[in-house]
Amino acid sequence: MGDSTHNPSDTLQRRGLMFILSSPSGAGKTTLSKMLLAKDAEIKLSVSATTRPPRPGEIDGVHYHFVTPERFQAMIDEDDFYEWAEVFGHRYGTPKGMIRAALKEGQDFLFDIDWQGTQQLYQKDQQDVVRVFILPPSIDELHRRLKNRATDSPDVIAARMERARAEISHWDGYDYVIINDDVNLCFAKVCAILEAERMKRARQTGLIPFVRGLMQ
Ligand SMILES: Nc1ncnc2c1ncn2[C@@H]1O[C@H](COP(=O)(O)OP(=O)(O)OP(=O)(O)O)[C@@H](O)[C@H]1O
Ligand SMILES: Nc1nc2c(ncn2[C@@H]2O[C@H](COP(=O)(O)O)[C@@H](O)[C@H]2O)c(=O)[nH]1
């Protein structure tokens, strides 16, 4: 006889998802990441290390681990990173420490990383990586967003705008591409993708025993 109290999530044994949001600077991935972390208690942020100085309001250990170039180099030498890359003249990397064991136990992580880091993570683990690329509605709007955010100097904004087209050229290396025009609509799409990817994996783990139970 089937167990009518069986819940599919009881037998969920999957590894955690590595859910990546990438975009050209200013397209809105940090905004979307914050919305996702506020809404979904099942996913945690992978906190990167960076040699970039903090922006106003950024907290060490929460938004980034802010480290010196020497410390970053030591972490590379000690093989402490899942991936790392140089972006806009600074180094950024995903430390293994915090996430390795949690991923094995099924914890989902959100990664706000660039295309180089995305390629590196995907090469390491194609099963668990979900790659989402966020596009701005136009180049003018991207510029407007960077200016209105008012966190970077005109020089930094100019450098990021100069790189925007090159960043966008990597869109094809992603599983999903979303235009962030209306932020709420874009966020709904991000949530739908995450949910669908979780369901795909639950099919392989918790769902199959559940269905077998129903059919007994
Ligand atoms: N759909 C949207 N419409 C209008 N403004 C938006 C939208 N999405 C985000 N913004 C605003 O655009 C600015 C840039 O967004 P955000 O900081 O999230 O970009 P980002 O892609 O994370 O950039 P970076 O890579 O430089 O950190 C912010 O001021 C944010 O409030
Ligand atoms: N490859 C990696 N890229 C990263 C990581 N953390 C952040 N980033 C990307 O860097 C740029 C600039 O970020 P900002 O906070 O200075 O605006 C942006 O594209 C981020 O996605 C990382 O660990 N690895």
Question: Any overview of this molecule?
Answer:
The protein has 216 residues and is α/β, with parallel strands linked by helices. The chain has a domain at 14-46 and 106-210: P-loop containing nucleotide triphosphate hydrolases (Rossmann fold, 3-Layer(aba) Sandwich). Helix content is 45%, strand content 19%. The chain is built from 7 helices and 9 strands. The strands form 2 sheets. It has a 5-stranded parallel sheet, sandwiched between helices. Strands 4-3-6-5 form a 4-stranded mixed sheet. Strand 5 and strand 6 (90-95) form a beta hairpin. The radius of gyration is 19 Å and the shape is globular. Mean pLDDT is 92; it is low at 1-6 and 8-12. The structure holds adenosine-5'-triphosphate (ATP) and ligand LQESDW3C. Residues 23, 25-31, 145, 148-149, 180, 183 line the site of adenosine-5'-triphosphate. It is an enzyme of class 2 (transferase).
Describe this protein with a few key phrases.
216 residues; alpha/beta; Rossmann fold; 9 strands; globular; disordered N terminus; binds adenosine-5'-triphosphate; binds ligand LQESDW3C; Guanylate_kin-like_dom; cytoplasm; nucleotide-binding
